[in-house]
Structure formats: C-alpha cells, structure tokens
Amino acid sequence: MKISRRQMLLSAALATAGLSTWPASGAVRPKLFPAADRFLDELERAATLYFWEAADPTTGLVKDRSLADGPDAREIGSIAATGFGLTGLCIAGKRGYLDRREVLRRIAHTLRYLWEQLPQERGFFYHFINVRTGERLWKCELSSIDTALLLCGVLTCRQYAGDREIRRLATQIYERVDWPWMLNGGDTFSHGWHPETGFIQNRWNEYSELMMIYLLAIGSPTHPVAASSWEAWTRPWFEYEGLRYINPKAPLFIHQYSQAWFDFRGRRDRHADYFDNSVLATRGHLRFCLDLRSRFPHFSQQLWGITASDSANGYLAWGGPPEQGPLDGTVVPCAAGGSIPFLPDECLRALRTMRERFGERVWKRYGLVDAFNPAANWFNPDVIGIDVGITLLMAENARSGFVWETFMKNDEARRAMSRVGLDPKPGDS
To answer: Which of the ends of the chain has fewer CB neighbours closer than 10 A, N or C?
Structure first.
C-alpha cells in the first residue's frame, strides 16, 4: 500500500512521542507500545464492567450514572448510555473481558426489549427511562440525538454478533425509525418531541455531535431523508492560537461522539476533513487548558481536560475554547479519554497522570471518576455512563479500530457517507 506524505509526517511525529503507526483502512492508526496498551486494557476492562453491572439484566437498559465504587440502588437510565453499553458489550466479548456467550445473551435480551416493550414513537425513544420498567422519566423528550446514540450501539451489535436473531432485531429497530417525521417540515432535525407539547423548537442546525443523526437518516433503507440535508447545517469556523477549525461554542465532546462509530479517517466532504478537524479541536482544547494555568496552576501538559461533566455544584456543560461555563479548575477525564485517537500521546499522558498522581481518589471500580478538582480536594463519587462510554470506545479505536471497523460493515453507514461526498481523499491510501 502506498504511504502518503501526510502519513509519513504523522508517523515521524508519533514516533517521537513513543508511538508507531501503520496504514489501516486508508488512514494512519497509532500502534501503542506495551505500557500504554496495558493501561488502556485496564481502563477498558473497568469500563466494560460498568456496562455489565449498571445494566438491568432483564431489560438491558443502562443506568445514566452510578457510584464509581460499584452498583447502587438508582434506577435512572438513559438510552444514550444504553447505546454506548451495547457497543461496550461487543468490546468486552471481543477482548475476553466477559464470556462471549453471556455477552450475546445480554445483547439479545436488550434488543428484544427495545423492539417489543420500550415505549417509542415512530422509532424514537425517550431520553431518560427507568432501567427496570422502561417508564419515561420527568416527562423528558423523545430524543433524536439520544436515539441516534442508541442506534449506533444497536448497529454495532448487528455486525459483531453473527447471530440471526440479533441481526433481525437490530435491523427492525433501525428500520422502524421515521426520520422525515423528526424534520418537522424543515431541513434540519428537531432536538425532539414531547407528547404533551409536540416538537422542540431547537434544531440540529450547527456542527456538533449531529453528524451521526444525519448519516443514520440518509442511509436508512426504509425512511430516509435527502442527502441534501447534510448541507442544511452550518459549520462555523473558529481560530485559536494559530489553529483554524470548525468549532461552535460547545464542549469538546461534540467533536468525539459521531466519530466513536463512523470512521471519518482519510475522508472529507467539500467542507472539511472531520477527523483532522477533531485533531485540531483537541489540540486547541489542550492549549486552552494550558492558558488557564494562571487561574488553576494544576493544569499542565500532563493534566488537562474539561468537557460536559459533573462538578461540585452539579452537572455543567463547560469547556472551551471559547470559554464556556463557570470554570473552577475541575478536571474531566473523558475530555482526554474521548480524544485518544486524535492526540494519542497527549491524551494518554493526561489519563495516566490522573491515576498515578491521585491514585484511589480518582481510580475506582469502573475506572476514572467522572470529574475531580484537586485544588478544592473534590473527587466525584460517581461515574456517568456516556462519559465512561466515549472513553471506552475511543480507547478501543485507538488500540485496534474495532468499533470503527465493526460499525462500518453496515451497508447503510457506508452508503450514507458516499451519498454526502465523504469519500477517501486522494493520496491517503
């Protein structure tokens, strides 16, 4: 396979960071040296334990959060955490963290419940549910983005399992979704729908984690939307310390979520290379954290990261650049965890520093706690499912590309990317 100049330059840069690379699927993937790989193996093993223990064994629905030390009595679940959890089960089966037969049994139970019992409307599911009963909580919305996160997990299982029933259920769950209905007469998707009041006015009309919604909808064989909807959302350009990339005022996770499943490496549309864009966004975020050192001296090249998370004062959607939220020095592990494939050396250094420096205060049964503030001596007692999930999936993608390669076996995913012009870039294969 011919190696492009871009690949050779990236290989040289990673070699100086203690990493090596090889071409895979038309793109470069870091090959981790043993110490880094062992650390990620421990991180993934702990994370998959969360998705086993925090899921109801009958419904398969995953709790939104749990004590970091182990299971608790809370029953609040989320369909987004369930989507990460289904993918996490595939990783656990592939890695041997859990018995494959038990993994397939849990996946089948979950998909049966999603297809037959969990309340839905036109294929979309409610954001928060009781993990034991499936009951909608807090009159929450029928969520377009959280349904998309769930479907990514469902479709990963379809390709991983090799089981006829699982493939049938996954296909039925995906093909039931009436994507044009969620457009609500417009060109972009609504954030969701309430049975009491109808569609939410806010729309997915600006670059964010939205890419997965549009690709799933464009690729649907039963209820697709036009490929032109890919052009309906805006891509705001942003500059920070000499870096220029697409970046709205939003936390770092928006650059991570769609890329946990859809493989954007070595592809671009007429607007951008979205994988490279996330590399720049992560680098910009690291520089932003370093610029906070005058206020929070514990931030450094070895300790950084802020994205939507818990805080000592509740859940906050904070980060930067540009600065968002009442920053107080809290460090959020999944900021680096969700960006491991983008800046492997910098992200791994941060994650390993967290464990080495703070030990049992940050490293619990399910891995790293959701957030902590060393200056205030505050260490979150909880983990949050979606934050555990994005770290797990991106760690596995950095190690093997397994989630990308499994998910991209879905014809619908490849078809959607082709329809919107996300074709391999010349010279990168």
So the answer is: N
CB-CB neighbours of 279 under 10 Å: 19
Cα–Cα distance for residue pair 143/128, rounded to 1 Å: 9
Q: Quick check: pTM over 0.85?
A: yes
Tokens of 403: 């989630």
What is the rounded distance in angstroms from the CA atom of residue 163 to the CA atom of residue 412? 19
Is the Cα torsion angle 41, 44, 48, 50 positive or negative in sign?
A: positive
Q: Model confidence over 37-91: pLDDT tens digits?
A: 999 999 999 999 999 999 999 999 999 999 999 999 999 999 999 999 999 999 9
64 CB-contact burial (10 Å; exposed 0-12 / middle 13-18 / buried 19+): buried
Report how far residue 104's alpha carbon sits from residue 349's, in angstroms, rounded to the nearest whole number. Answer: 34
* Phi, psi for 163 (deg, rounded to 5): -115, 130
Task: Name which of 112, 375, 36, 422 is nearest 259 in CA terms.
Answer: 422
Which domains does the chain carry? 32-424 (1.50.10.140)
DSSP 2: P
Q: Are 398 and 344 in contact (CB under 8 A)?
A: yes
